[in-house]
Each structure stands twice: as C-alpha cells, then as structure tokens.
Amino acid sequence: MQRLGLALAVVALFCAFAPQAGTAQSWPMVLAAATPSLGEDGTYGKPLLDIDEDPTLPPDMRHLMERSRAHYLEGLDLMRTGEVGRARTSFDSAVDLLLESHWGAGASPSLNRFFMELIRRIREDEAGHHRTLETEESGVEGAVVDELESLDLFTLEVDPSLMDLVEADLLSTKYDIPVVLNEKVFKSLNYWLGRGKRYFTDGLVRSGRYLEMIQAIFREENIPQDVLYLAQVESLFKTNAYSRARARGIWQFTVGTGTRYGLKVNGQIDERSDPEKSTRAAARYLKDLYAMFGDWNLVLAAYNWGEGRVQKLVDRSGLNDFWSLTELKRNFPKETQNHVPLIMASIILGRNPQKYGLPEQLDPPLRYDRVVVPKRISLSAAAKALDVPVDSLKELNPALKSAYTPSGYPDFELRIPLGLAPEVLERLALVPESKAPAVPAFNGKHKVLPGETLGGIAAKYRTTVSALQLANNIQSPKSLRAGTWIQVPPPSAPAKAAPARPAKASAGK
After folding, report:
1. Measured at the alpha carbon of residue 87, what is the angle toward residues 83 and 93, in degrees to the nearest 5?
2. Residue 45 region, left (φ>0) first, then alpha (ψ -120 to 50), else beta?
3. Closest CA to 458 of 254, 255, 244
4. DSSP string spanning 140-208?
5. Is 15 helix (H, G, I), strand (E, B) or coil?
6. Cβ distance 257 to 286 under 8 Å?
C-alpha cells in the first residue's frame, strides 16, 4: 500500500509516517468519547497530561511530547486566568507540534495514547471553562466563524493526491446542491483535514445530536439536505456559540434576523439557542434567500454577508455566480470568500467521513418529551420533582438564559428526558411558581458603577468604545462618572431585504 496514498485517504491527525513503522495505521478516532469532567473545585484538566514511562520510547519522541505538553499546560494556565484567545493559541500549538512531526500513527502506542489524551483534555478544558463563565448570558461559547474569518486560504497548499481522492469521491456521490471543486475548495479541505481537523471533528461528532431533527425540518421546508453543513462552518453545531458579530446559536442568528423569523429574544429566553426553533427559522430564511438569488452559493454568501450587500454586488456587476464575483476587484470580504468553499468542503467530508479518516460514530440524537410550563419555576425544583439531574434540563433547554423557565410565556414548552411516567409528570404541575424576580428586558441604559471603564462596558454589551462615545457625546473616556446613566447603542439593524426574484433554471437541487 502506498504510504502517501493511505495518508491522504485517511488524512489522519499525523500526515506523514515514521520510517520505523512497519505498517502505516490510521489514528483511532475516539474523540466522541471525550466527555468533559471537571473536578468538584471547578479546575480543569485533572489529572494533568502524563507521558508514559516507556524505556523504549525514542528520546526525540519523548522530547516532542514534553514540548507539546508544555504548550498544553501554558494554555491551561491562560484559560484559568480568562485569556481564552491566547489559551486556544497554546492548545493549537500543542496539537500542531504533533501534526507537523515526522512521527506517524504506527510509530508508538505511547504517542498514540498521548495524542488522544491531549485532544480529550483540550475538549474538557474548553467545555469546563464555558460552564464556569460568570457572565450575564450563561453558557456562551466562541463561534468558530470568528476563527475562520482570519483564515488565509491563499497560503494553503493543494495536494495533488487529495485532489485525485476527492474527484473520485464526487463521481460516486450525488449531492443535493451543486458542489464545485476548485482551488479554494481544495484548500478548504486541506485546512479541515490539517490544522482545522480538531475543529471539524468536534463539530462533526456533535452534529449527531441534531442531524435527524435538521433533516426532518429541511425536508418539510424543501431545503436541500447538504445545506445543513452550513451549521458546521457557522458554529460547529454549538447551541450557545456567540460570535463577535453578536450572532448566536447553531445557525448564528443576529437578534434582528432571528426576531424577523419568529425567534423570541429577551432577558429570560433566547430562542436563537433553541436548536429546533432556530433550525425552522434558518430553513425559512434560506428559502427566502433562494427565492432572491436562485443559486445556492449566493445563498450561502448572503447568509454570511447579508442579502442586501450580495444583491448590490450582483446588481452592480451583472453577475449571478459566486465564483465569478470573487474574481472582481471589489467583491466579497475575505470571510465570505472563505465561507462558501469551507461549506463545500464540509459537505464533501460530512457525507463520506470514513474516506477521510474522520469519525463515523457521532453523538446520539437528543431525545426528549415536551411539557407546557405556563408559570416561572426553577430548573432545580423541576429536576427534583422529575427525579432527573438539573444538568439534563439545562442541556435540553439551552435557550433559557437563567436557571428558571420564563414568565409571561404561557405556552412555553420545557423539554424533559424521554419516557418519564405520567405520575412523575404530575409532580411537575405541583412545583410552586418561583418568587425570584425575572430578569427585565434590557432598556438600552447602563448605570456606571465605581471603577467601570468604557472599555469594560463596551465588552459587557458587545459594542465598541467609539459607539458608546458617539451615543453619549463623551469626548474623553476619562470623563465617565460613577452613578451616571449612559445609553448603550442597540445592535445594528439587519440589511433590508431586496425584492424576491425568480429562481434561475440552472440552479440545482
């Protein structure tokens, strides 16, 4: 068997094979088993990452593992101090050292175990950090779309053998939308299967929780099934992913677009994080975009950049093809140019993961029943009445912004573990209404506390210092006074939708 051919076929987390290895082997894909497990004191990564005391371990391999562990421990310390961006850089460095080494999958069981433990620990630590964040919106997680904005596809290489593999794959796979193979798509594949493989694998495994539900809703709304991989690029299927653009959830809705498509967003609930309701909203938004552009690549570009901007570009250029528009001098921003090819690559990998060394074992689908809770009750009281862990209720109800069901929402449906007996459900009706005050809807004003700065306030409300200065006529940040009220600018209004136009006959489904 050709070493290079196998490496490209499995595109395992180490891409080259060591000369000592008798038979090339792919890395076991056990990331799905990496379940977060924080210590009771809230610390991460316990016990610390160990290296086998194997006397046969080559010194340079041990040195490689020690360097990787040092980067991991550095990231751990940064995560504990809240420097999440720098922590992720250190975690990535720990992984990249192994990815870029000459050691292969069959080189050593010790190295294999170390690598898989490293990936598991990183996943635990990041999940643990998100669970212990003390923010207004509990459970907020970074959105991968922010990471991908800065990705420079131009600098990535295209491997000819990967091209052969993918081209052969396309001949045997029927896609629901036209999948184009060009240099940008191949470079996106290289990214997902190289430096970005940790991201892709994490999202792919998590997608199993929601695939059945998304597929059913897309069928009902007449949306091609392959479009669901848009969520892989937007959020890695994280319900509480929150981007710098203030978009949230699996489908990364802004408040404006989310409410336009029927999602409730207030101080108690954010249905952008409701996987089922947000999927329904996303399907209807995608349907409207397709009615406007008649081309799925332009739909995906508009989903990222805004339909109004894409419509202006189409009208100004007279072109109705995404790839042709990317060749113009004034065209899509970099993140949108990345967005579409990354989705194309995600579709290819998601449809045939086994061909590319990706895990086939995904998280099991979330199963639940619904029960109407017309009053405000605490989740802890509900969990006690139902005799289920409170974390189960939180996981099934990510749209809740606190540990309570919302008030003033008489038809709110609480999702509960599947199959509870009727007599158990009767106990839920006996849970008294909570007397704890509900979080009021934000009125756009903030009272300045002693020691607060414009920078801190801007970070709290996810706006900018300059926007706060402009809204309040503040000439100098030093003029901020404790006890005064300042106006916080609302999120940017969504672009006005252009008139719908008939679908092109050439657009494929």
Report:
1. 155
2. left
3. 244
4. -EE-HHHHHHT--GGGS---HHHHHHHHHHHHH---SS----SHHHHHHHHHHHTTTHHHHHHHHHHHT
5. coil
6. no
Output the six-digit token pair for 431: 């849970």
- CA 438, CA 199: separation in Å to the nearest integer? 37
Q: Which tens digit of pLDDT belongs to each residue from 238-260?
A: 998 988 788 999 999 998 899 99
To the question of pTM greater than 0.85 for the whole model, the response is no
Gyration radius (Cα) of the chain, Å: 24
In Å, the largest CA–CA distance within the chain is: 73
Identity at 301, one-letter amino acid code = A
pLDDT (tens digit, 9 = 90+) per residue, 80-112?
655 666 777 788 888 878 877 877 646 788 888
- As a whole number of angstroms, the distance between CA 314 and CA 291 comes to 15
Q: How far apart are CA 461 and CA 335, in angstroms?
A: 24
Output the pLDDT for position 460.
67
| Residue 47 vs residue 75, higher pLDDT | 75
- Alpha-carbon gap, residue 405 to 401, rounded angstroms: 9
